[in-house]
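Could you join me in thinking about how sequence relates to backbone shape in a protein? We need material for that, and I hope you will provide a protein of your own picking. Label the sequence line and the structure token line clearly, so we can match residues to local backbone shapes. Would you write everything just below, so we can both look at the same thing?
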Amino acid sequence: MKNRYRILDKELLTKDGHEIAFLHTLLLSQTHIFKAIGKNIQLEIMQTARYCDETNRIIIATVMAERSYFKDMSPA
């Protein structure tokens, strides 16, 4: 399967004086686990990363679910 990973959107934001990187991607997967049940999985991933100069920490938040979940949750 070609083109398994695709960046849908990326953005650099500022919140509370800190830069936040936002990444929205699509992952097409057909691993051996899902092949056993004959299912192709399309995972959509939303991720943010924030670095704090004061604490020297990186905070990363990730939401990953089947693509249909994000379509169902979108405002009409």
Notes: The radius of gyration is 16 Å. The CA atoms of residues 9 and 24 lie 5 Å apart. Strands lie at 5-15, 18-29, 41-52, 57-66.
